[in-house]
Write a structure and sequence with these properties.
The structure is a single chain. Helices cover 31% and strands 23% of the residues. By secondary structure, it is of the alpha/beta class. The protein has 3 domains: 6-144 and 265-327, FAD/NAD(P)-binding domain; 152-262, FAD/NAD(P)-binding domain (3-Layer(bba) Sandwich), CATH 3.50.50.60; 347-445, Enolase-like, domain 1 (2-Layer Sandwich), CATH 3.30.390.30. The strands form 5 sheets. Strands 1, 2, 3, 4, 5, 6 and 16 form a 7-stranded mixed sheet that branches. Helix 1 runs parallel beside helix 7 (312-327), helix 3 packs across helix 4 (81-105) and helix 3 crosses helix 5. The protein is globular.
Length: 448
């Protein structure tokens, strides 16, 4: 028997931590996982899952309106925020139960308490209990970043937005990334007056320029306001509960809620890492090697706390690789090339591989193919909103090195197309594939 209480102790039961715990246990390891909040982590409890359910709810606003053009006698409808909110939270509860059940079924010890690192092979629970483990895995994820300014305590983040008692009639969203644009689309469809405030001059930095410009154009057409180069100065709470927001270079603005979506930071502070000798970067991310090993040989980390690629599937892949490497006899290294991503904006974006600018900088000679069209459904509905598909090709090899899409169901289409990019297929391979007609996806094999 081992001299340690556990072979593996995991701090954080989010996507990466749960996968690592389950797989390590299935390989025969004695595993414990500590979670101070709720099993499931950011994605399940207060991130991509409940947010996607709100996105579905938001789509009904336009679908109900468009249904009339398709022959349906739809009466005027009223949106009820508490009904959707409570149904979404109930689904979160159900999923949390399933995650806990999965861990129990694999005989993982779940400790619903805060745990901190007390040494290279020791953890301390909130009640002072100390436990030992041959290896410690940190999977504490990320946390919303809220810049400090007068009145910043009156703002909410993506952690609290799912629990709003009432739907804000006016909401200001700070940030230009995917979280800001997703919630802008959600609240706009629910009938709120939405303003996105960005301290810079670009939304969705890192996405292809044409795609993000198209989202900006469509969002403005839908009634979302944008204020660029406008850092927050202050937020004051008024007697009626509303907020007065002061922005640099702008007139005072009134709002019922301010949602700060200004990025996420690694959730690494205050858990004993630096005291144990674990090296962090200037953002607080745990520095790890390709085996997810930190500067302390017995301490490892996966997911957003390492700040490599902040995506749930990446955290899951890292957790799987860690468990297979150290407990399954299958050394595995995660490949971070051509990781697909999506923005569930309104309409959504899907992307994989290099943007046009990245490809030109890296490859020099590239060919770019685009299709700018109205989806068939939008044509009949009388909606002028246009989709845009973009393919980036290495001119020297004909290899497709990037796909970027904005339009209905773009993420669903992009997932399959990402397989082709990952496999290194060529433009000729796409051209040789017979189109599936009539569909939006067929545009990918008809690009000229």
């Amino acid at each position: 028997m081992s001299d340690f209480d556990y072979d593996l102790f995991v701090i954080g039961a989010g996507s990466g931590g749960v996968r690592a715990s389950r797989i390590a246990a299935s390989h025969g390891a004695r595993v414990a996982v500590a979670e101070e909040y709720r099993v499931g982590g950011t994605c399940v409890i207060r991130g991509c899952v409940p947010k996607k359910l709100l996105v579905y709810g938001a789509h009904f606003a336009e679908d109900i309106h468009d249904a009339r053009k398709f022959g349906w006698d739809v009466p005027d409808c009223k949106f009820d925020w508490p009904v959707l909110r409570d149904n979404v939270l109930a689904e979160v509860d159900r999923l949390e139960g399933l995650y806990g059940q999965t861990l129990d079924n694999h005989k993982v010890t779940v400790l619903r308490t805060r745990a901190t690192v007390a040494g290279p092979q020791k953890v301390r629970l909130a009640d002072g209990t100390e436990l030992t483990a041959e290896r410690i895995l940190i999977a504490t994820g990320g946390w919303p970043h809220v810049p400090e300014f007068p009145g910043s305590q009156h703002a909410i983040t993506s952690n609290e937005v799912f629990h709003l008692e009432t739907l804000p009639k006016r909401i200001i969203i700070a940030g230009g990334g995917y979280i800001a644009n997703e919630f802008a689309g959600i609240f706009n469809e629910f009938g709120s007056k939405v303003t996105i405030v960005n301290r810079g001059d670009t939304i969705l930095r890192g996405y292809d320029e044409q795609i993000r410009d198209r989202l900006l154009q469509i969002s403005m057409t839908k009634g979302i306001d944008f204020k660029f180069n406008a850092p927050f100065q202050s937020i004051e709470k008024n007697d009626d509960g509303s907020l007065t927001v002061m922005l640099e270079g702008c007139e005072p603005m009134q709002a019922d809620a301010v949602l700060v979506a200004a990025g996420r930071v690694p959730n690494s502070r205050g858990i004993g890492l630096e005291e144990a000798g674990v090296e962090l970067d200037d953002k607080g991310a745990i520095k790890v090697d390709e085996r997810n090993q930190s500067s302390v040989p017995s301490i490892f980390a996966v997911g957003d706390v390492t700040d490599r690629i902040q995506l749930t599937p990446v955290a899951i892949r890292e957790g799987q690789a860690f468990a297979d490497t150290f407990y399954g006899g299958k050394p595995t290294v995660v490949d971070y090339q051509n990781v697909p991503s999506a923005v569930f904006s309104h309409p959504p974006i899907g992307a994989v591989g290099m943007t046009e600018a990245e490809a030109r900088n890296k490859l020099g000679s590239v060919r770019v193919y685009t299709s700018d069209f109205r989806a068939m459904k939008n044509v009949l509905a009388g909606r002028n909103e246009r989709a845009l598909y973009k393919m980036i090709v290495n001119a020297a090899t004909d290899q497709v090195v990037g796909l970027h899409m904005i339009g209905p169901d773009a993420p669903e289409i992009l997932q399959a197309a990402a397989v082709a990019v990952k496999a290194g297929l060529t433009k000729a391979d796409f051209d040789n594939t017979v189109a599936l007609h009539p569909s939006m996806a067929e545009e990918l094999v008809l690009l000229k």
